[in-house]
C-alpha cells in the first residue's frame, strides 16, 4: 500500500468468544459432535420464546410504521416509557432525551469508546467482556487499562487496586462497571458500587455501567442499578433486550445518560455520540416498538421469574460439581448465565494433554497448541474441545492474567447439562494429572 491504512488500535480488536467457533466447525467437519458453551445466546441453546411475546412482534410486523425510520435517538414513546421506569425509582430523574438507541450494545460500546478523546482512558474490570476491552484498547491504540476482580472474593472488585490505578494514571477519565458481570456471573452489592462511585467523585471521573443482565439476578442476591446511586456524577447505563426477552437477533440496545448537565465536557461528549448516531440515521424500529408492549405485559415478570429460577438451578448444579475438583477456583454464579473457573497458580504446563481418539482431530489440536506464545488456558481449551467436544472460552482472552475458562449455564436439558459439567470436572482432573 502507498500508505499504512491500518488503524493504530486494530491489534486490540479480538473476540475469542466467536473466534473459537471456527475451530469447533473444523471439528464438526471431521465428524465430532460439539457442545457450544461459548456464546451467551439463550435462543441458540433452546430457550423457547413465549407465544404472547411472539404475537406482539407479529402484530407489529403487520403495521407499516414498523418498517419506517425512527427518530435518531429512537422511538419517542419507547424512550419515554423507559425514562418513566427509571424515574419511578425516584433517585435519578431523566427524560426521553437522555436515552439513545443503538443497533445492539455492541454498536453502543463502539460509539461510547470510539468518540472519546484519544488520550482519555476508561478503566475496566479484569476479566472483562471482550467487546468493552477491545473497544477501549482500540480507541487508545494501547492495551486496555484494568482493575482486578478477585476470584478469591466472589469475583468482587479489588477496590484498592482500582483506587491506586486511578490515582497514579491521570489519563483515566472513566470507570467501567459490568453488573451483573460477564464473564464471571458476579453480582456486586450496593456497598461496592458506592465505593466505586466515591472514587469517581474524588477524581472527577464519569461512570459507564453495563447493566444488560440487570434482570437476571438470583440465589438470594441483590444489587442496585447505577441510576439509584450515581448521585450527581456524570454517567452512562447500557441496557438492552438481547438477554431479558431474550432477543439477541434484534440488535436493539440503548444507553441512559445521567447528569450530562453537570459537566460541560461530558455534555459535549454525549452530543458527539448523538451526532454520530445521526450520521447513521437511526436504529432498528420494530424491536423498539415492542419494548413497552412486552415489558408492560402481565406475563413478563412471571416469565423473568421462571428464567431466573432456571439459571439459579443451573448455577447450583454447576457449582456443586466443579467445587469438588482440586486445582481450580470456582465461585457460585449469582447473575447473568456464565461461570468463570480459574486454575490455581502454577497448575498448568505446556506438557499436559487429554486423550483424543480421532487422529485427524488430534493432529489439528496438536497443531493449534504448538503456536508460539499460546496461553496455557487456551491450550487446555483446545484439548478439551478435541477430547470431549465441549467448547468454552479461555479466561485469558477476557483481558486478565488469570488462567481458566468461561462456560455458559444455558443448556436447557438438565440431563445433558449435568453430563457436560461432569465431563468438564473429569477432564480438568485428567488434564492436571497428565
Helix proportion of residues, in percent? 40-55%
Order of helices and strands: HEHHEHEHEEHEHEEEHHHEEHHEEEH
Number of domains: 2
Number of helices: 13
Mean pLDDT, nearest integer? 91
Uncertain runs with pLDDT below 50, 5 residues or more?
none
Distance between the termini: 49 Å
Tell the overall outline: globular
Structural class: alpha/beta
- Biggest sheet: strand arrangement: 2-9-8-7-6-3-4-5
- Give me the CATH superfamily of the largest domain: Type I PLP-dependent aspartate aminotransferase-like (Major domain)
Q: How much of the polypeptide forms β-strand, as a percent range? A: 5-15%
Q: Could you describe the largest sheet, including whether it forms a barrel?
A: 8 strands, mixed
Q: Strand tally, please?
A: 14
Which fold name corresponds to the CATH topology of the largest domain?
Aspartate Aminotransferase, domain 2
Architecture overview:
- With 434 residues, the protein is an alpha/beta fold.
- It folds into 2 domains: 170 residues, Aspartate Aminotransferase, domain 1; 228 residues, Type I PLP-dependent aspartate aminotransferase-like (Major domain) (Aspartate Aminotransferase, domain 2, 3-Layer(aba) Sandwich).
- Helices cover 40% and strands 14% of the residues.
- The protein has 13 helices and 14 strands.
- The chain has an 8-stranded mixed beta sheet with strand order 2-9-8-7-6-3-4-5, sandwiched between helices. Strands 10-11-14-13 form a 4-stranded antiparallel beta sheet.
- Helix 3 packs parallel to helix 9.
- The radius of gyration is 22 Å and the shape is globular.
- The mean pLDDT is 91.
